[in-house]
Predict the 3D structure of the following.
Amino acid sequence: MQKLCSKKLPVDVVFHPSWWNKNAGISFDESFFYDPRRRVEDEKLMEKVLYERFGDLGLGEDHLKDLPQIGAVHLASGYLLSEMLGCEIEYYEDSAPQVICAHREDLKIDEAAAFKSEAFQKLVRLIEQLKAKYGYVVGDINWGGVLNLAIDVRGEEIFTDMITRPDEVKRYFRSIANVIDRFVWYVQSLTGSSSISVNRSARLFDHPVAIHSECSHTMISEQDYREFLLPIDIEWSMRHQPYGIHYCGKDPHRHAEEFAKIERLAFLDVGWGGDVELLRKHLPDTFFNIRLNPVDIETKTTDELRKIIKERVIASGDDQTLTGICCVNMDDKVSDERVREIYDIADELRQEDLEGVDDTFNFSLADSQATNVQPIKPKDFCLNEYADYAAALDERCKEFWNADEGILVYRRMRVKEVFAADSCDMEKSLQWQLGALKESMKFEADIANFIEPWYGLGTVASAYGFDYLWEPGQAPAVNGKFASVNELVNAPYMPVAETEIGKHTLEMTRYFVEQTEGRVPMSFCDVQSPLNTVSNIIDSNQFYVDFYDNPGDMRIALDRTAQLLTDFTLEQQKIIGDALVRPGHGFASSRMFTGLGMSDDTTTMMPDDIYFDMCVPPMIKAGKPFGGPVFHSCGNWSGKKQGIAAIDGIRMADGAFSLATDPGANPTEGYAEVFAGTGVVLNARIVGKPSMVIEKVRQLWKPGMKLIVVTYCDTPEEQAYVYKKLKAICR
């Protein structure tokens, strides 16, 4: 069987005449169908309206062309063959032509008379006039179907005839089929197509397909189809290749076994409600055009619509070149947004198919969130360009920070060398980071990347006399631990700025400011929370026990550490000046944001009562001078999310929301309900393919959220795609 389509999941829509009447001012009287001037002008106007509203979706591509269309290719209206066989037609301003049943008494069709009828002659005259002016004609006319036409001409009596006069009915159907056959060949020989007017999806295929309309087959049994009409489908499938069936009813699956007998059935319009999975079992190589109900879709939420479409597309099989989506006869009540959602959902499904579904942590990577960049020396850095770029994005950040809800997208440029061995060399560190800033401008985002004087996790720990241990190729580790919290409390300590680590960090901070003239966004160093710092310098076998055995000393240790942290951070703030972005380090940061970002990873190990009673107050104390605390923890802190969102003065909370980001990532469930309406920003880091990022954000978002999505897309094109999708989800 001939392959019908090479595109993945093609989509098309058809609007009801009421939509066109409202949005284009077109009247669908008889002249619309037969006046050669209107055939060209009105079809061009329809293309223009489509282009203006949905041009970015690929609609309205012919809006600049004067095409001599012989039929109404933007409507779903079968009427002409009914009129050729003796039915009257009524025309309306905002509706398709209405066929008035002829109620013929006999079961006879004068095949020759149909082509001598005034109805057919009007078409002939139209074609001649168009050809005289343009030299050619295009398009086609909906040719209906055998049973559809039989009902138009004979009426409902045809069903009784099938029982009482089966042989006459078979001859009657054959005569109707002969008229259709001759008409189809006539049109196709002139224009090269026959069925765009049956279903506009036909225009998207690699080959012109002949589509037999079987709307009324929902009214007959499988046995009746097998006896009276299947033979015609089988014959036509051999003569009209590729061949298809339009079945807009809700039960095409009833005839699945019979459809499977049509050896070359290349196309099947699957009506809303049809069992796609069952049909696919019988028709493994047939293109399924999944029809959406134009009325029902307006009652669905976006998530419900996505679920419905996704389920049906998945049921259609793995090969997306064998599945399409259409929605026909959407009326003047349908919103543009709903139309766009159909296309967006299809786009997402294509992306998922391209990527596969895989959310796992890659343990072979040194840094799962890192991006490869080329280092740039300060003298070679595009300082003016980046300063302007960052300033422009700051305006978006300001609007977001002051709003009650919204979304920003941040493409973080994390360079693994900066957070490993090269952190000991401030020149190398800056060069890597400047390379990252330049690379970041290629990626569509709302928040600018920044530089950071990162020099390990032990900055505040150094106040207690600890230095760094440098293993080859690794980030520095704090060298040493106290045996207990009591030993820490009784040990000497000094301001961080007076330690070797503190001095180096401040020197690094000055160097970064000087080399960038204070014009590049810059954060504090990696700020560990009081809890993290203390947990890192007390033997873990004793640390957790001391919360129970010596809570008094633990409170002293946490409070003292908070003050040491505050004092040193204020020193950094003086040096950085107006270039300062907050909350800093791993958080999306801006000069328009406030708060002090602190890594509080030990939270996942703490019981709720001890954490919120003993560990949170020192974090609040440390964050207050900078606008409030900002929380980060690796791993899964979802069990504490309600308490964290309620921390006094908290401005932002950060977490990983895919396993590719963190093997212990947070589940998305419940975060939207907790954070919406609080004003607390959720900073969601999501490593993964675009489809995964999009799905995670869909689960995280609800109105009232302030959400920052941190992405790690591989290419600018991928980032642009994700950016657009995320903005659409959260608008």
Observations:
- The first strand starts at residue 11 and ends at 15.
- The chain has two domains: 11-355, 378-729.
- DSSP finds 26 helices and 16 strands in the chain.
